[in-house]
Amino acid sequence: MERGRHGKAHSARQGSINWPGTLLGGRPQSREDLLFHLRSRAAHELWLVIVDASASTRRHRALTDAKGLLAQLFDDAYRQRARMALLTASGHAPKWQVQGLKAAKGLAGWLDQLGAGGGTPLLEALTEAGHWLAVRRKRYPTEQQKLLVITDGRLKDIAELPHLECSGVLVDIERGPIRLGRAQALAAGLRLDYQHIDTL
């Protein structure tokens, strides 16, 4: 994520803060790490979002609150003309909703209908995302790829995780009196920064 921190993304020092973009660059440690909305960008950005919508994410309003974060992300992507890729993990297999298209306001309609249920094919989604990103990097070598994973981390085994070669952040949406706390280990295994949704 160093390119974003030292490139044109930080040429603006005022205006509204781009929180989703900032978080996708890792936990901000100082004002220098904040991204601000810009009217133009030197390189196109791709935001790949993987949403864990398994049955366990219905607990304690976890997925409901995640929708609020996604709505802000979609709005920022639309205004910044970033390209979006959206992959959901629920049921028996992951499903692509958008693949590399310019962010459109139509994503809000999909978000309204997003519900949780079924199993957790998150590992399959991560593997598929890794292959897709690798192919896209060859086609668009200057594109800046960022990854956002939203999950409660409730996976049985995270021993063999794919190497995504894409920096970003994992947002932990696990809640309740009894927490397994697996999302933090998952973030470390994927080499992503970790944030709990309650801290955002």
User: Low-confidence parts lasting 5 or more residues at pLDDT below 50?
Assistant: 1-11
Mean pLDDT: 80
Query: Biggest β-sheet, characterized?
Result: 6 strands, mixed
- What structural class do the secondary elements suggest? alpha/beta
Q: What count of helical segments does DSSP give?
A: 6
Spatial order of strands in the largest sheet = 3-2-1-4-5-6
Number of domains: 1
Q: How many strand segments?
A: 6
**In angstroms, what is the radius of gyration?**
16 Å
In the CATH scheme, the class would be Alpha Beta
Enter the CATH topology name.
Rossmann fold
Bulk shape: globular
CATH architecture: 3-Layer(aba) Sandwich
What labels would you give this structure?
200 residues; alpha/beta; Rossmann fold; six-stranded mixed sheet; 6 helices; 6 strands; disordered N terminus
Structure report:
The chain is an alpha/beta fold and 200 residues long. The protein has one domain (42-199): Rossmann fold. It has six helices and six strands. It has helices at 2-6, 19-24, 62-80, 107-113, 122-139, 182-190, and strands spanning 45-52, 83-90, 93-102, 144-151, 168-172, 193-196. The longest helix has 19 residues, at 62-80. The two termini are 20 Å apart.
